[in-house]
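Technical annex B. To support the medicinal chemistry partners, we prepared a structural model of the target in complex with adenosine-5'-triphosphate, based solely on the information shown next.
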Amino acid sequence: MRGQSVRLGGVSKSFGAKDVLDHLDLEVAAGEFLTLLGPSGCGKSTLLRLIAGLEEPSTGRIAIGERRVDDLPAKARSLAMVFQSYALYPHMSVFDNIAMPLVMRRMSFAQRFPVLGRAVPGSGSLRADIRRAVERTADILEIGHLLPRLPGALSGGQRQRVALGRALVAEPSVFLMDEPLSNLDVQLRMQMRTELAELHRRLGITFIYVTHDQTEAMTMSGQVAVMMDGALLQIGRPAEVYHQPKDLRVARFVGQYPINILPGDIDAEGRLSGPGITPFGRFSTRGPVTVGLRPEDVEVVNADAGTHAARVLHAEDHGGDVLYNLQLEDAPDIQLRARVDAKERRAQGAPAERLHLRFPAVALHIFGPDGQRLNVHSKQAPQLRSVGGTV
Ligand SMILES: Nc1ncnc2c1ncn2[C@@H]1O[C@H](COP(=O)(O)OP(=O)(O)OP(=O)(O)O)[C@@H](O)[C@H]1O
C-alpha cells in the first residue's frame, strides 16, 4: 500500500443558508497521520465527507495525489472510510464482511452467487485472490482466528478491528476515520490508540482521523489540525500546538487540564504586567491582553521574597499528579490551577492550605484582543523569574 497526499484549496460548504466550512486550505503529505480536532459541530465530519466524496463542496478544489477528485465518485478516489458505528453485516462471517468491498468491486453479478457463481469463468482464481487479500489483512490486524465468526460473537474492540479490516482490504492510499473509537470503553480506547499508530507506521498510507478528544489527537498523530466554527485555526505537530498555540481558542481547547487565563496589560513601554507577573518584555502592542499559563507551568516553591501566595480551595488527587485549585491572595478574584507531581506533594507531608507560586515568564502565552498570539520583541529574553508582590 502507498500513501497519497490530500490537498484542499478554498473549500467551502453550505447546507442551505448554513455555512459549515469557510474557504478552507489544507495539505496532508503522503503517508502523514493527521488528526482533525475540534468541538462538536465545528465541521470536522463534513470536511472528511467532502474528501471521501460523500458530499460535494460548494466551492473549492480537492486533490488526492496529483489527481483532482472533486468530480469523481467516492468509489473512484482510492480511499476508505471507517465511522463511529461499525456497520458490519450481522448475518455474514467476519471473513465475508472483510471480503465484501473486494467482492463488490471485482466480481460480476453472476460470479457472486455462492454455488452457481463458481461455474462462471474466472471466478475460481478471483475467489482465491480475495481469500489471500482477506487473510493478509486479518494477519495485519491479528484477527485471523476470528474469520469464521459472526459479528454478534465479537467484543466491541474486535468488531472495530473487523471494520478496519473491511476498510483496508482494498489497499486504499488514504484512510479516513470519523471518531472510530468513541464507542469503546476507556481501556480499549487506549489500546486501540497505540494499535492505530502502529498500523499507520506499518502500512505507510495517509491517515486522516476526526476526533473531538484532544488526548487522542495529541497521542496518535504526527500532525494536528485544530478546527473551530468551520475554520482551521492551527496545523502543526502536537507539541507545537500545545506549546505554541497561535490562537487563544486553540490554547483553551488543547490540554488535558484547562489552561489558566489571566488578565494582562501592556504599558506604554511595551512591558507586560498582570496579577502575579513581574513586568517584562517589549511588545509592539499596547493595552489589555489575555495571558495563558498551563497548570503544570505554575511553579509551587518555598516562600521567599519574590513569591506569590495563594490559598488552596481544593486539591484533586489524580494518582500520578495533584491538581490544585487556587486563589491568589493579592488578587482574590483570580482563581487558577496548578498541577504538581503527586510524589512531590506526598514528600511535603500534610496537605497545604497555602502555597507559594512563581509564574515563569517563558511559560506565559500572550494573546491580543483579536485572540492572536503575541510574541515578545525584546533582546532581553524573558527568563525564569519570580512573580512580583510579597505576601
Ligand atoms: N446534511 C446536512 N444538512 C444540514 N446541516 C448539516 C448536514 N451535515 C452537517 N450539518 C451541520 O453542519 C455542522 C457541522 O457538522 P459536522 O457533523 O461536520 O460537525 P462535527 O465537527 O463533525 O461534529 P460532531 O463531532 O458532533 O459530529 C453542524 O451544525 C451540522 O448540524
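Notes passed to the chemistry partners:
The chain has nine helices and 20 strands.
Residues 378-391 have pLDDT under 50 and may be disordered.
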